[in-house]
Write the structure tokens for this entry.
Amino acid sequence: MDALELLHQRRSMGKLAGPAPTAEQLDALYRAALRAPDHKEMTPYRFIEISGEGLDRLGELFAQSDYQANPHIDEGNLDAARKKPKRAPMIIAVIANVTPGLPKVPPVEQIISAGCAAHAMLYAAYAQGLGAMWRTGTYAHDKTVWRGLGLGDQEELIGYLYLGQPGGRYPGMQIRNPDDYVERWT
Ligand SMILES: Cc1cc2nc3c(=O)[nH]c(=O)nc-3n(C[C@H](O)[C@H](O)[C@H](O)COP(=O)(O)O)c2cc1C
């Protein structure tokens, strides 16, 4: 696939089927991530690759998170939380590792760099015919989940990349006109 075609056409796919990406495909994703722009070459991110029983463990953390928010939650809703990670055969949690107190590389730059890494992985997935979707929601910002995933004091979860084979048709794409977003100083 031509590079510009990829940049202009990439889509997210929420409906994902097995099998999970192969080791070779994943290697291409990580190599793309590691080319993200990165002020002072800090590589301020890491990944947790979750599949198989790991998805059950993640689902248990999601259920714990819901229970802590509402101890009266019923078993049906807890079960729904447990099943959420099973929407894909693999999830990669993208974690920003934010070093505070660097005047030239403030935390926002480090988080942007982690976001660029995640975005690069979406492109690498699409280029290889994989389906992928970046999801967050309450489980991405919840300290119970963060602790369960082993995040350190300086770490933040910036998203879950749901990955697998495209399980449906890509929806129509909104065509945006660049002129609506660009101011030109000449
Ligand atoms: C940081 C971030 C978090 C997101 N979280 C969610 C989410 O929790 N649920 C969701 O349906 N879409 C979420 N999205 C949006 C989708 O990943 C996707 O970009 C959107 O559906 C548009 O599809 P497209 O990428 O094909 O244009 C998120 C996107 C970003 C950048």
Remarks:
- The pocket of flavin mononucleotide is lined by residues 11-12, 133-137, 159 (CB under 6 Å).
- DSSP finds six helices and five strands in the chain.
- The helical segments are 3-9, 23-33, 53-69, 75-83, 107-127, 143-148.
